[in-house]
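Suppose a colleague, Dr. K., hands you the sequence of a protein chain of 310 amino acids and asks what its three-dimensional shape might be. Before reaching for any lab equipment, you can write down a predicted structure in token form. Begin with the sequence itself:
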Amino acid sequence: MNAKIKIFAGSKSKKLASQIAKSAGLEIGNSTIINFSDGEFEVAYEETVRGAHVFIVQSTVPPADNLMELLMMIDAAKRASAYKVVAVMPYFGFARQDRKDRPRVAIGAKLVANLLMAAGVDRIMTMDLHADQIQGFFDVPVDHLYGSSVLLPYLKGLNLDNLVIASPDMGGSKRANTYSKYLHAGLAICHKRRERPNVVGEMTAIGDVEGKNVVIIDDMIDTAGTITKAADMLKAKGALSVRAIATHAVLSGPAYERIEGSELEEVLFTDSIQLDNASPKIKTLTIADIFAKTILNVYNNESISSTFII
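The predicted structure, expressed as tokens, is then:
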């Protein structure tokens, strides 16, 4: 391994980290986690990191132990005299808590940013934040990458006629509009009313979908309630086919069952989150090459804008 650049894997992103390292022509560094019977754990590097650029790959999916593990790996690297420590977070957890939308609630994304900086991180690499403004929560550089770099080529390769790009809600309309312009496709927006978190009430569509092949674009799919309800609604309005594309496969609770029982023909994700279950409707594309190129460009003080398609 190059003595000046080292890539380490958190326990939730070992497969992706290995692919990133391979794509960058490097090897995964040696680190260990010791688990104690009371639930505590200890992280340690089994090789020197003194003077090195250390890149720690860890998606902070639930439970919060994964975030704590990343924080401790950052702290350990700083205390071992690493030159720079970069947190590579393909999926940034707690990103949905980006503002105070009602009284007496925490702004979880800002708290996570504070924790990362308190641990000593020098830079953040992430992909498709739930809200772009989260970049402003940090006082260190943030490299915000886009899943469209791998998702768009796949979508173009489907060669779908009468293509319409749909947003599952008003909040995602900007993302859907960007895809629509790039693909010269129609645009539809689903309007939903949430009864409570993770529970969708009524839903309708703005735009013409009859006789169209519809692709719903989102940054993440969690319980799949919104996506599957939108797919069923679009199909009922005359869509020829409905697919969904999202960067992050959170897929909690009844997500798999909902996807299997819905009108969705296909759901496409990146591997920002490692999937343990399989489904014939679900396909994943790797983002390892994008992160590997970005890591090397950052290390060599080169521009990373070449990784962006839109």
